[in-house]
Amino acid sequence: MAETEPETQKPQETRKRGDWSLTDFEIGKPLGRGKFGRVYVAREVKSQYVVALKVLFKKQIKKYNIHHQLKREMEIQTSLRHPNILRLYGWFHDDERIVLILEYAHGGELYGLLRDCTYFTEKRAATYILSLAQALAYCHEKDVIHRDIKPENLLLDHEGRLKIADFGWSVQSKNKRRTMCGTLDYLAPELVENKAHDYAVDNWTLGILCYEFLFGVPPFEAESQKDTFQRIVKVDLSFPATPQVSSEARDLITKLLVKDISKRLSLQKIMEHPWIVKNADPTGICNN
Ligand code: AMP
To answer: Which CATH superfamily includes the segment(s) 108-279?
Structure first.
């Protein structure tokens, strides 16, 4: 299937939201399966633009009572425009399905790449962390906290640029929140302890991801959820002897995995950190 077409032909510009139906698309191979439906690569017939269609079954949405979460995810994602955030161009529904028209991430899941190479080079890790910090700074400016950044929710486009996908757990609010959500390994202490939390939860997650990118496992991994919980709350952080990771990288991780929210490194400070400045490719594209 052809690569994505120029900006002018993107599907959101050829139709008004709600005017779509499945007959507007040639459906290609399945890309993956999520909890609530399947994702296919597809081509919009008129513009020939390649997209990903996420097909969700209304029965499942009703059964798990996720209607509000989905609506919130769709509203937030359509409003965001950033090179490192997966675009949601529009959606439509029929009697059985809700179909989301998404930007196609040709490179698939970052998680797959990490599993294939066990851990990333410092240059690759720093490039992804910079891309994430820039995308999150944009989200935070718009009062959006993602709260569920993890490798499975990060996709790569055909150039290898990181894209944050899946806004299912994000919230748009100026106020402090109090709902437990997300996957334990990536959660900040204030979230696992069910305390009020704010934007700083995403900064903590960048520390977790930075560690996982460089060492291949998240820092507080344990046999049981209870043990992971204990390790997060105590910030039981240690660095393995192998692979060898620079002291600058360890410095950034140590400054992000800080229990006291007021002392946790800000997104701006992450972007200016010597390890990022030295290693990250500002184009967000990495080939090594
Ligand atoms: P999800 O239901 O969002 O968890 O998606 C299931 C799987 O489909 C993901 O893990 C990805 O491998 C794949 N996928 C989802 N969205 C896209 C996309 N926009 N482009 C390419 N692959 C995708």
So the answer is: Transferase(Phosphotransferase) domain 1 (1.10.510.10)
